[in-house]
Amino acid sequence: MMGVALALAVALAVVPLLGTPDYFLHLGITSMLVALAGTGWAMMGRFGLVSLGHGAFIGTAAYVMALLWNEAGLSPWLGLPIGVAAAMVLAALLRYPCFRLRVIGHYFALVTLAAGEIVRLMIVALRDYTGGSLGMTPRLAPDNAFAAMQFSKAGFWWMALLVWVFGIVVWWWLDRSMSSKALAAINEDQDAAASIGIHVTSEKLRVTVISAGVAALGGALGAQYRLYLNPESLAGIGLSLQIVFGAIAGGMYSLLGPTIGAVFTIALEESLRVAFGTAFIGAAPLVYGVLLVLFILFLPRGIAGFFEKRR
Question: Which of 243, 252, 257, 258 could form a disulfide linkage to 39, CB 3.0–4.6 angstroms apart?
Fold first, then answer.
């Protein structure tokens, strides 16, 4: 599967050179960044650590990067890793008490959901800096676009492709590490895993921090690409559920599953937008919810898992 992913990356690298229209480049960039966030979520989701609040980490990284640029003039090239690091620290602070107090299952999911809403409300409350519910726009720098990370569509395509490959490599590395075996054992029986010497809290915390960092990287770059930040689209429950839906629909147990799910999600979203326009504003969330139930019932391993089973 890793060979397929690398071959796909090589093929995608030449797409901007073929005179591809900007609209399709936009869809591709969005799909790759959503796929990166979904890949990050799947790193912990496939071990039973179901998070409904990854929007908290994405919002933290995106707003830290944008505020450092707007308020301190720090280039997004430096602000991005600082923002991702802040998201990883937040993940550690939020999840460590959960793991120490053995908060698992649907209780863990509810805690993550609450964490996402807390971050969203904090962004709204700090409206003097973040713009609140109206959102904010990173300061434009047409004279120094590279330092401001404000590229053309083709430039962002290659950057999105680079970070997507990075996410795939991290997933592959984690899947082949001893942590993967330890987390699988913890998912089966936490007490039994601890009895054979597995450090349950540290293993869970490690995969959570990595997951948050990868997802935050994709989300923050997505905000930089759009040059617009809004608490609903970057830290709200809608974003978190979109990531969960994409990962489950594509197959969170497969290397390319979240990528397949992201392409499916973006294609579905665009189709609904064209079909309904503004006549049915809630079309996408409604269809996501119905399809999520159907996937859980009939395709629990997602689209990628279905084809792997058939093969």
Answer: 258
